[in-house]
Design the sequence.
């Protein structure tokens, strides 16, 4: 046989099927997979592909939205404001694939036009006849319902099943219900993803980290507070996901200091009141009726405070009719391009925040002038022209607004919104309780009154701003202050939860501590003590302290061995506690700032974090845009690997076999962990 014939036979080894490993199968991982399905036919052209999903929790819902948590826990969005599907408001390079929002999906389930996912059906079948099942909740669901998290879990599970079904032939999904503990491999070759339950790694041509919210080791202050609690027989619960915390340690009838007044506190409030047998009577609607709380006797007494000293603003309880503000106006692609083109990196406080404030003010006043012109004293065209010319925070802008908007309640004061208790002092804690209840009632009334629809326009402005800041990466929110303000103003609890808070306050189950809450450990008396600027010189003592907030996602303290290994090995750069990524396509940046060609990261632990893995319909969905960009980059790379090279001419020497990095060092059997 001629040598050339032998060579030709030798190089005809079938190529390896390209593979991608997605670590994290919750909503963000599902959203990325949906974009793979949407783009594969145009970018991947019928080629084979293996997709490995690694997550110990159910695909679609993941950890945060898993079904097996209390049915008392709600989403903080109405059903009509939740979708996992793109629409024509999302700036996509790939195709739009329409699908139902949460309330539309529930309607389809009720009408028999859709079925629950196989996982949800199995969970329903396992219920005892006396238990209220998921279908009962779906039957009662409307667009204005705040659904339970188990309803959202079923929706996400259904979206995942639909997404897998939409993948083209040849694309195979493999589930691994375990943790990923390490990623290794050369920049130009196949990656290895080591799993907790096997000794051999998954080989991947690229890796996408959609890790979601992460657990973390406590910081120095929390370590010291835990040590103090152990030494004196006290209770200290560090930052955690409230649904995962062991709250049984909090004793009935005793004071508990709670630091944090956001959504983690709301979960805590629910679980130690209704979750311990308490109940409400009265109207929970949006009228003037008040709820009455009937204790079970097993509740602790929660003394709650925070930096602001007030709960997050209530969700807005009406829709926006009429003209929407034309956003973006002052912070859009043109302004972001200009900031990125500067020779020196932009400073957030000096260069970015003024544009943010001007954008929010534009949204507010556009709505006020167009929807409530009787409360203004100027022509909108004239006002807009002068507003555009004035510098944010300038005396000229203040004078313009003061002359055109006579009622101070109709003016946008972002500083007062952010710190409503600044400078306020109360004679006693009882006076503080009355003052905070008045504040919460006023917030509820305003956030459910369409006469103040400029507030909803500001909410839309916040979403627009968030979508633009993502392009700046770590320069768009240094230190996370903007994210915190966004969450406080736009991601607050449902109105009914604040009505429950008022009822608990009247019943004495919740007591307010005020702004700038301080906590100290009194070693002489062996007790925790808390105070605030609201009532100087007054303190509350307790034997229990709960930190009602999420853990810090910083890789320096993360409990994710995978992320910690990347950080320690220099394979992940950090900025303000977040993993740095290329804001254009989510590629992971190494410590020297170089994008890794085969590693991507999406989610709240990155510098390109968006306002959520799902969003309101027709609001641009920054996470959807990110998912699309990452999926298209991934498919472009994978397509190049999947297409075999052209056959060599007869007599040519055989090319080198494609490398799978089989000779690279591997951890010993039984130790699939960081070396």
Sequence:
């Amino acid at each position: 046989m001629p040598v050339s014939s032998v060579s030709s036979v030798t190089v005809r080894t079938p190529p390896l099927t390209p593979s991608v490993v997605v670590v994290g199968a919750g909503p963000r991982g599902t959203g990325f997979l949906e974009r793979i399905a949407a783009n594969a036919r145009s970018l991947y052209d019928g080629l084979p592909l293996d997709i490995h999903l690694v997550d110990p929790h159910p695909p679609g819902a993941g950890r945060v939205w898993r079904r097996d948590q209390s049915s008392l826990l709600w989403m903080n969005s109405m059903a009509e404001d939740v979708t996992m599907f793109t629409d024509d408001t999302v700036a996509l390079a790939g195709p739009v694939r329409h699908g139902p929002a949460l309330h539309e999906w529930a309607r389809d389930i009720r009408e028999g036009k859709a079925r629950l996912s196989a996982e949800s059906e199995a969970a329903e079948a396992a219920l005892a006849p006396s238990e209220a099942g998921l279908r009962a909740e779906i039957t009662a669901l409307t667009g204005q319902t705040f659904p339970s998290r188990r309803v959202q879990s079923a929706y996400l599970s259904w979206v995942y099943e639909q997404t897998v079904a939409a993948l083209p032939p040849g694309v195979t999904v493999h589930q691994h219900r375990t943790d990923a503990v390490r990623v290794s491999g050369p920049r130009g070759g196949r990656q290895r993803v080591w799993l907790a339950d096997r000794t051999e790694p998954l080989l991947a041509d690229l890796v996408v980290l959609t890790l979601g919210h992460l657990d973390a080791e406590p910081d120095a202050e929390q370590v010291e507070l835990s040590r103090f609690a152990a030494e004196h027989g006290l209770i200290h619960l560090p930052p955690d996901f409230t649904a995962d915390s062991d709250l049984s340690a909090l004793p009935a009838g005793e004071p508990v200091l709670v630091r944090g007044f956001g959504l983690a506190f709301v979960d805590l409030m629910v679980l130690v009141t209704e979750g311990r047998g308490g109940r409400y009577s009265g109207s929970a609607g949006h009228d003037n009726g008040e709820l009455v709380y009937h204790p079970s006797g097993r509740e602790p007494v929660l003394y709650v405070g925070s930096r602001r000293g007030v709960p997050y603003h209530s969700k807005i309880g009406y829709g926006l009719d009429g003209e929407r503000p034309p956003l973006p106006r002052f912070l859009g692609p043109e302004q972001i391009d200009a900031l990125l083109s500067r020779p020196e990196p932009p400073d957030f406080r000096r260069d970015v925040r003024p544009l943010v404030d001007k954008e929010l003010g534009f949204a507010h006043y556009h709505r006020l002038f167009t929807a409530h012109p009787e409360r203004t004293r100027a022509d909108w065209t004239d006002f807009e022209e002068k507003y555009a010319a004035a510098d944010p925070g300038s005396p000229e802008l203040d004078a313009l607004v003061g002359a055109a908007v006579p009622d101070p309640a109709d003016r946008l004061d972002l500083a007062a919104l952010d710190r409503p208790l600044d400078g306020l002092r109360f004679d006693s804690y009882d006076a503080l309780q009355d003052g905070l209840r008045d504040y919460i009632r006023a917030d509820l009334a305003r956030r459910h009154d369409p006469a103040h629809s400029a507030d909803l326009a500001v909410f839309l402005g916040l979403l627009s701003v968030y979508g633009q800041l993502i392009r700046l990466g770590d320069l768009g929110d240094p230190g996370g202050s903007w994210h915190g303000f966004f969450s406080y103003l736009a991601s607050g609890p449902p109105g009914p939860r604040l009505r429950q808070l008022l009822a608990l306050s009247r019943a004495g189950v919740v007591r307010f501590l005020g702004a700038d809450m301080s906590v100290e450990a009194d070693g002489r008396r062996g007790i925790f003590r808390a105070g605030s600027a609201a009532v100087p010189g007054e303190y509350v003592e307790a034997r229990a302290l709960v930190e009602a907030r999420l853990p810090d996602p910083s890789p320096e303290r993360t409990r994710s061995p995978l992320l910690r290994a990347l950080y320690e090995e220099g394979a992940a750069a950090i900025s303000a506690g977040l993993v740095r990524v290329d804001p254009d396509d989510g590629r992971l940046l190494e410590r020297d700032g170089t994008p890794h060609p085969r590693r991507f990261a999406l989610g709240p632990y990155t510098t390109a974090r968006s306002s959520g893995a799902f969003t309101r319909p027709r609001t641009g969905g920054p996470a959807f845009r990110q998912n699309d960009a990452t999926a298209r980059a991934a498919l472009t790379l994978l397509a190049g690997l999947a297409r075999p090279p052209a056959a060599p001419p007869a007599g040519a020497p055989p090319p080198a076999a494609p490398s799978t990095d089989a000779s690279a060092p591997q951890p010993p059997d039984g130790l699939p962990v960081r070396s």
Q: What stands out?
A: The longest strand covers residues 595-601.
